[in-house]
Amino acid sequence: MEILIIVAIIVVAIAFYNFRDYLYNPSSRPKIEEIETQSQVREYENYEDPYKSTSKEDKIKRSELGILTSLMSKVAHIDGDFCPLEKELVRNTLEDIAQQITLQSATYQKEEILAILYDIFKNTTEEVEELTYAYAEVTKGQYKRRLKLVEYLLMLAYADSKLEAKEQEVILDIAAYLEIENDDFNKMYDEFAEFYAKESSIVSVDRAYEILETQKGASFEEVKKNYKRLVREYHPDILHHKGLEQSIMENANAKLQEINAAYEVLKEYYKN
């Protein structure tokens, strides 16, 4: 019992000594600024950046180019038909998008981005209204950019030379949500409708070889290779501002349809 009393006295004496030192030596006390700094450090250490856990897939999906990819998907898949020209247009545009994202961020590899874009294109589940409002949000004040997107989607829908009712409906919705002026939309729409209302001229086999820049008698693999190369050469660039003043109808659509018609002729020719 006496030992416990002695220990208690010693503990009280040490505490009193430390407390007295604290009172008489203000410099030894932690300053308010230090306390606040220590508190901030603890808060910083415990802080979780909401963007840190966001995956590359989510970042790309929510970006302007990711939303564009989703809108392309909606138009391309709405009629259940995916013709060769449509496939090539989508492939080339996704490659353009992947290249653009690669240039914007050194942390991404093009092949990795391309795989993410194809996944977005194949598995888009959001409604057109949600996607279009999201695109409108990231393109505020960029009316010509929106206009070019709608024009491109019209071209994509017409890749098989006809505009299905479902394709027309979804493009009309997109144009409305993007607040495209009626006169601008009607002008584009009428140009496409007028072009595809004309009867396509019959392309001979010899002319088809000439259009596809292929020697007569070449293998079908060579025909396909040149077809893809020419589609790549003439497909519209909708990602850069330099092309916003150019009409897709005037600069790409007619030539691409000629290339596609020639390819279809030779495809049938090689089957026989």
UniProtKB/TrEMBL annotation:
SUPFAM superfamilies: Chaperone J-domain. InterPro entries: DjlA_DnaK_co-chaperone, DjlA_N, DnaJ_domain, J_dom_sf, TerB-like. SMART domains: DnaJ (SM00271). PANTHER family: CO-CHAPERONE PROTEIN DJLA (PTHR24074). Residues 207-271 form the J domain. It comes from Helicobacter valdiviensis. This is Molecular chaperone DjlA. PROSITE patterns: DNAJ_2. The lineage of its organism: Bacteria, Pseudomonadati, Campylobacterota, Epsilonproteobacteria, Campylobacterales. Transmembrane segments: none annotated.
